[in-house]
Specification:
CATH topology of the largest domain: Beta-lactamase
CATH class of the largest domain: Alpha Beta
Largest sheet: 5 strands, antiparallel
CATH superfamily of the largest domain: DD-peptidase/beta-lactamase superfamily
Number of strands: 9
Oligomer: single chain
Distance between the termini: 85 Å
CATH architecture of the largest domain: 3-Layer(aba) Sandwich
Order of helices and strands: HHHHEEEHEEHHHEHHHHEEEH
């Protein structure tokens, strides 16, 4: 009987004790959570990014509640944060097509080289994307585009892919109207042949297939619609007036437009990551490297040979597309530098039919860029 009464007394005290312990633990936990939360919110409170009740709006109350968590930042630290943000914003701007300071020495050198062939019309443009430095010579003058217009056409088609109105494996049908002579092999296939879009886009750049180009123009909505897109992209000199091969040179572009089209893609201003990767992959298949890449290799000096291999040994890579209709030549591309920076450049020359001076002038203009595309030396290891 005594044991039974003792057990009941123990049981009677156990309940309140456990309740008190739970309340204490809950209080400690809530205190920790509240303190942590206030500490985390403190910076936002200080910057007035977090709305507070009117009774907490007073700075003295905030300081009392949060203590050191809301102490004002030192002036020098605040200034540093603002400088870092400004630098980041400036870097973002510089990565886009944003010319800032002209490299006058290069612009003047281009003018001197072109003046040596006064019966040739030449246009040139260079923009270093990372710092905005540029050089230009008649850069906005419309000139016969030849096959160089295939680069902005590729951009316009990949925009459709981004919009979801085109599938990369969508079959395109060859019709009589779209058969283009000259470069490429698709013209030799029977009418009604169907090719996946990825093959058409690649052959347009790889071997400059004219029938493939016409298929791309048609898929983009035709000449009028693709020209309207070029205007929206701020490519005013770029106009498709005729199906390829356009041996009369009625299709036009400019050195600045070609450079801008490539820069828009590389900076991510117009295409998503996947389409941007496809653009670079397709541009990387181009087999003609006798103009811009050869000229740049010449300007850099050292070991010569196959342009792509020689440039790669020096840490350079050029994604380019040429144009050649006899009376006009062109080349434009993205240039990767050994230090990770990138530049875009475009060149067009018009002259007598099949005059070797035209292609040589593009190589000379490209070579003149080399001193301005040298890598920034890496800092020494500590």
């Amino acid at each position: 009987m005594a044991n039974s009464r003792s057990s009941r007394r123990a049981a009677g005290w156990g309940g309140p004790v456990r309740l008190i312990l739970r309340l204490v633990l809950m209080g400690v936990g809530l205190g920790l959570l509240t303190g942590t939360g206030l500490r985390l919110l403190a910076p936002r409170v200080q910057k007035q990014e977090f709305p507070l009740p009117s009774w907490l709006a007073d700075q003295a109350v905030i300081t009392t509640l949060l203590g050191e968590a809301v102490e004002p930042q030192p002036a020098d630290e605040s200034t540093k944060v603002e400088q870092d943000a400004s630098a980041a914003a400036k870097g973002l701007q510089q990565a886009r097509f944003a010319p800032t300071v002209e490299i006058k020495a290069l612009s003047n050198r281009w003018t001197e080289l072109a003046a040596q062939q006064s019966d040739l019309q030449a246009s040139a443009y260079l923009l270093i994307l990372d710092d905005g430095r540029f050089a230009a010579m008649h850069a906005e003058r419309p000139m016969p585009a030849a096959s160089s217009i295939k680069t902005p056409i590729l951009l316009a088609v990949l925009e459709l892919l981004d919009q979801g109105t085109l599938q990369w494996n969508e079959p395109l049908t060859l019709t009589q109207e779209l058969v283009g002579g000259g470069a490429g092999w698709m013209a030799s296939r029977p009418l009604g042949s169907r090719f996946p879009t990825y093959e058409v886009a690649t052959e347009m750049i790889r071997v400059s297939d004219n029938s493939a180009t016409n298929l791309m123009i048609a898929r983009a909505g035709g000449m009028e619609q693709i020209n309207a897109r070029f205007q929206v992209l701020d490519l005013p000199a770029t106009v498709v007036n005729n199906w390829l091969p356009d041996l009369d040179g009625t299709n036009t572009t400019s050195a600045r437009d070609l450079s801008r089209a490539i820069a828009l893609v590389d900076s991510g201003e117009v295409l998503g990551p996947r389409s941007r990767d496809l653009f670079r992959e397709v541009m990387g298949t181009s087999v003609t490297n006798t103009l811009l890449p050869t000229g740049l290799m010449r300007g850099l000096g050292g070991a010569q040979g196959a342009p792509d291999d020689s440039l790669a040994r020096k840490g350079y890579r050029v994604y380019n597309k040429t144009g050649d209709i006899g009376l006009a030549y062109a080349d434009a591309g993205l240039i990767e530098l050994p230090d990770g920076r990138r530049a875009v450049a475009g060149f067009l020359v018009k002259g007598p039919f099949n005059d070797p001076r035209s292609t040589e002038l593009i190589r000379q203009l490209s070579a003149a860029m080399a001193p301005h595309l040298k890598p920034i030396p890496a800092p020494p290891k500590p």
